[in-house]
Amino acid sequence: MARFAFVYHGGKAPEDPAEQERVMGEWGAWYGDMGAAVVDGGGPAGKSTTVSASGAVEDGGANPVSGLTIVEAADKAAAVEMAKGCPMVKDGSGSVEVAEILQM
Questions:
Q1: How many domains does the structure of the chain reveal?
Q2: Which domain does 24 fall in, by range?
Q3: What predicted TM-score, i.e. pTM, was given to this entire model?
Q4: How many helices (H) and strands (E) does the chain have?
């Protein structure tokens, strides 16, 4: 099985406790549906900083990461199908970038 990184962009943590509970339930159900394919559940990411080859440091970025998960799947198509179930994708608040983690 190959490993894939699900890199999340967008989304927002709800401020209302009832809404937080609902959203966390959706994420828990999605992770439950993927079962053993979830290698590392990862989690939300804080604000990013980009360091370039010139040594320049820039806070934020063009497409900031909001979280990360590592999954196993037979191939990229299977990983993409799993990503389609992401709560942020389903509610339109964000997207999931799917990238294979290459073995070196």
A1: 1
A2: 2-44+64-101
A3: 0.88
A4: 3, 6
